[in-house]
């Protein structure tokens, strides 16, 4: 497992502890940098409220905090992984700006737990095998429909899957606005349809 680090922002260069097993698929530095370059044009990171679903050891959410996000909720159900996640949050000095929820993100989505704020940016990164089925009634489809009520009107949902997994054009009011492929993975960005918030 190659080392992971925070790419940019106040904690630029900070090395993160990797997972102990191969059960998670940490995003590579190259792909993470490319993803955040795309996200920057939406101006949602700085002072934003972020949720990192299926977060693993927290690389993506910590990157957002380093780049100026106000708050991040990390959602991960594996106890062993959340122990490493907690250490990474402490290493980065973001204990006061984050919270870990040990739960199944397919069931909870990104529940607001801070003054009922909705999220401006949600990262969804389920295990590939759980994201091949992208239909409306699939686990992923139901999650995306749930997120319609959990994001701000201008909020973005970023979904990382295998490049072979093609999302539908829309899930309720959440519609695809961009899709990028890097290597064997794809990242699809979705946003609430305008005029229906």
Could you characterize the architecture of this molecule?
The structure is a single chain. With about 200 residues, this protein is an alpha/beta fold. It has a single domain, classed as 3-Layer(aba) Sandwich (Rossmann fold), CATH 3.40.50.150. The chain contains 5 helices and 10 strands; from the N terminus they run E-E-H-E-H-E-H-E-H-E-H-E-E-E-E. The protein has an 8-stranded mixed β-sheet. Strands 1-2 form a two-stranded antiparallel sheet. A hairpin with a 2-residue loop joins strand 8 (about 170) and strand 9 (about 175-180). The longest helix has 14 residues, at about 80-90. The chain is globular and about 40 Å long. It starts with a strand and ends in a 5-residue tail after the last strand.
Uncertain residue segments: none
- Main beta sheet, described? 8 strands, mixed
Based on CA inertia axes, which overall geometry fits?
globular
Rg, please?
15 Å
Helix-and-strand structural type: alpha/beta
| CATH top-level class | Alpha Beta
If you average the pLDDT, what whole number results?
91
How many discrete structural domains?
A: 1
SS field, number of helical segments:
5
CATH topology descriptor: Rossmann fold
Q: Portion of residues in helices? A: 10-25%
Q: How many individual β-strands?
A: 10
Assign the CATH architecture: 3-Layer(aba) Sandwich
């Amino acid at each position: 497992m190659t080392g992971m680090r925070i790419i940019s922002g106040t904690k630029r260069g900070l090395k993160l502890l990797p997972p102990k097993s191969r059960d998670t698929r940490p995003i590579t530095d190259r792909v993470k940098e490319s993803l955040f370059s795309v996200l920057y044009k939406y101006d949602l990171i700085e002072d934003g409220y972020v949720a990192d679903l299926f977060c693993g050891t927290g690389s993506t959410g910590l990157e957002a905090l380093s780049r100026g996000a106000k708050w991040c909720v990390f959602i991960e159900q594996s106890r062993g992984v959340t122990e490493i996640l907690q250490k990474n949050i402490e290493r980065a000095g973001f204990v006061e700006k984050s919270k870990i929820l040990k739960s199944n993100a397919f069931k909870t989505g990104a529940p607001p737990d801070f003054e009922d704020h909705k999220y401006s940016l949600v990262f969804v990164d389920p295990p590939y095998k759980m994201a091949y089925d992208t239909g409306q009634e699939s686990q992923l489809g139901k999650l995306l429909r749930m997120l319609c009520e959990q994001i701000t009107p201008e909020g973005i949902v970023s979904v990382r899957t295998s490049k072979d997994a093609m999302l539908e054009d829309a899930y309720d009011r959440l519609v695809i606005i961009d899709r990028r492929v890097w290597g064997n993975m794809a990242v699809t960005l979705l946003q609430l349809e305008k005029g229906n918030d």
